[in-house]
Amino acid sequence: MSLEQFFQAIDANQDIYVQRLKEIVAIKSVSGEPEHRSDTILMGEWLLAELERLGATTKRVEPGVQKVNGRTLPLPPVVLATYGEDPAKKTVLIYGHYDVQPALKEDGWNTDPFTLTEDAEGRLLGRGASDDKGPVLGWLCALEAHQQLGRDLPVNLKFCFEGMEESGSEGLDAIIVREAHDYFRGVDCVCISDNYWLGKTKPCLTYGLRGVSYFMMSIKGPAADLHSGVFGGTVHEPMTDLVHLMSRLVDPQGRILVPGIMDQVAPLTEEEQHTYEGLEFGLSDLRGALGANTEIHANVKDILMHRWRYPSLSLHGIEGAFYAPGSKTVIPANPIGKFSIRTVPNMEPAQITQLVKDYLHAEFAKLNSKNVLEVTCDHEGRPWASSPDHWNFVAGARAVEQVFQCKPDLTREGGSIPVTLTFQDALQKNVLLLPMGACDDGAHSINEKVDRRNFIEGIKLYGAYFHELARVKTNE
Ligand SMILES: C[C@H](N)C(=O)N[C@@H](Cc1c[nH]cn1)C(=O)O
Ligand SMILES: [Zn+2]
Ligand SMILES: [Zn+2]
């Protein structure tokens, strides 16, 4: 089949695809919120039904249960599917996630986060539009378009879609390891579309990710919240201890204050130095995505190195503290500070957790507080760094050239998709990250969007990738 015909079909169907994206953005699959667990499961079921409609053989895998604040919640299903089993064709495994980050209109969204809304610039606004419902749906649209044109897919497909990626991918690693020589037998390469272009115009292929270790720091004091007029000045206030400890984690220049962390970072090699050259990325791209001029580093190379190859520590929030409008005079009894460390090669998650715990307990001891500190690591995912020389990347680059008439940038990513390393290790196959979204999509933020252009050209890219995979020589 000429790719031109396929591209025309995607253009002709684009409104149907956008409508379908609207349908799934409306499913509030927020994995981190127990009240949306049933919606998250529903989203998994939507995918199972859609895959079956497209003629795939599906398998629903239950990862088990999760304990949240004393409640036992079922984990959303891992959706596995197979489409085509022709031994003469290569088999590519596609991974994506159907859960999303929390979103409230009151956070500052201009539109309802769960109603996909297109603005005058062709931005499709809605939670998950870019991360990761747009890409997940995109793969299925590329498959459907082939069927509508009466064309065979040039590759066999396997799918693995999970519903807990935004909450530590609980249960997934064990399933991948278990299925590596069973359901995933015969897989030749893996492709994940769950990150973003460096800028707004040029596509990229991605060969590295940072890991993430997510911490909860609880300070327990009085049995219940207190009246600050009655008790203020007479008790050790948990918030005072917590805010002090949180201020000891990272300085305003982004330097991590926990001793020993930077010692583990892989040294910078001459070869790596060159990977920051010639990329289509400038300060204006960063500022555009930030919506501000608040960058720490002055030049592009430093910015990218601090996103890709150095760790960072971010403070996310405080649970159990007063945050509503008004001026409630309360002393919170048990606030929980949340922060995470983005990890890089050669950091070892277990050692990082120990360093953080030891440091925070030592700092807490200096306060002579009678409150009780507990530090836990909620989830940890390892960093991943690969090489873009594999034929899987060659196929990805050729697909980019077919759709965008340019060579892709080769990038690493500051975010984390811990399952990438699991696939690479358990299957012993190459993993390519092939993003659909742009740098300013606002994933995890308010007003998340995917541009109509990225969504539609992204579907073309996935189809072109299937064809280039079929064509590429495995020794290229
Ligand atoms: C890059 C990917 N789309 C993503 O957003 N991953 C999350 C994974 C995560 C880990 N803990 C919570 N979410 C991320 O990088 O934050
Ligand atoms: Zn995400
Ligand atoms: Zn994602």
UniProtKB/TrEMBL annotation:
<feature type="binding site">
    <location>
        <position position="131"/>
    </location>
    <ligand>
        <name>Mn(2+) 1</name>
    </ligand>
</feature>
<feature type="active site">
    <location>
        <position position="99"/>
    </location>
</feature>
<keyword id="KW-0645">Protease</keyword>
<feature type="binding site" description="in other chain">
    <location>
        <position position="416"/>
    </location>
    <ligand>
        <name>substrate</name>
    </ligand>
</feature>
<feature type="binding site">
    <location>
        <position position="166"/>
    </location>
    <ligand>
        <name>Mn(2+) 1</name>
    </ligand>
</feature>
<feature type="binding site" description="in other chain">
    <location>
        <position position="194"/>
    </location>
    <ligand>
        <name>substrate</name>
    </ligand>
</feature>
<keyword id="KW-0482">Metalloprotease</keyword>
<dbReference type="GO" id="GO:0070573">
    <property type="term" value="F:metallodipeptidase activity"/>
</dbReference>
<feature type="binding site" description="in other chain">
    <location>
        <position position="342"/>
    </location>
    <ligand>
        <name>substrate</name>
    </ligand>
</feature>
<feature type="site" description="Important for catalytic activity">
    <location>
        <position position="227"/>
    </location>
</feature>
<dbReference type="InterPro" id="IPR002933">
    <property type="entry name" value="Peptidase_M20"/>
</dbReference>
<keyword id="KW-0479">Metal-binding</keyword>
<protein>
    <recommendedName>
        <fullName>Peptidase M20 dimerisation domain-containing protein</fullName>
    </recommendedName>
</protein>
<dbReference type="Pfam" id="PF01546">
    <property type="entry name" value="Peptidase_M20"/>
</dbReference>
<feature type="active site" description="Proton acceptor">
    <location>
        <position position="165"/>
    </location>
</feature>
<dbReference type="InterPro" id="IPR051458">
    <property type="entry name" value="Cyt/Met_Dipeptidase"/>
</dbReference>
<feature type="binding site" description="in other chain">
    <location>
        <position position="444"/>
    </location>
    <ligand>
        <name>substrate</name>
    </ligand>
</feature>
<feature type="binding site">
    <location>
        <position position="97"/>
    </location>
    <ligand>
        <name>Mn(2+) 2</name>
    </ligand>
</feature>
<feature type="domain" description="Peptidase M20 dimerisation">
    <location>
        <begin position="208"/>
        <end position="365"/>
    </location>
</feature>
<feature type="binding site">
    <location>
        <position position="227"/>
    </location>
    <ligand>
        <name>substrate</name>
    </ligand>
</feature>
<feature type="binding site">
    <location>
        <position position="329"/>
    </location>
    <ligand>
        <name>substrate</name>
    </ligand>
</feature>
<dbReference type="InterPro" id="IPR017153">
    <property type="entry name" value="CNDP/DUG1"/>
</dbReference>
<feature type="binding site">
    <location>
        <position position="444"/>
    </location>
    <ligand>
        <name>Mn(2+) 1</name>
    </ligand>
</feature>
<feature type="binding site">
    <location>
        <position position="131"/>
    </location>
    <ligand>
        <name>Mn(2+) 2</name>
    </ligand>
</feature>
<dbReference type="Pfam" id="PF07687">
    <property type="entry name" value="M20_dimer"/>
</dbReference>
<keyword id="KW-0378">Hydrolase</keyword>
<dbReference type="GO" id="GO:0006508">
    <property type="term" value="P:proteolysis"/>
</dbReference>
<keyword id="KW-0464">Manganese</keyword>
<feature type="binding site">
    <location>
        <position position="194"/>
    </location>
    <ligand>
        <name>Mn(2+) 2</name>
    </ligand>
</feature>
<dbReference type="GO" id="GO:0046872">
    <property type="term" value="F:metal ion binding"/>
</dbReference>
<dbReference type="InterPro" id="IPR001261">
    <property type="entry name" value="ArgE/DapE_CS"/>
</dbReference>
<dbReference type="InterPro" id="IPR011650">
    <property type="entry name" value="Peptidase_M20_dimer"/>
</dbReference>
<comment type="similarity">
    <text>Belongs to the peptidase M20A family.</text>
</comment>
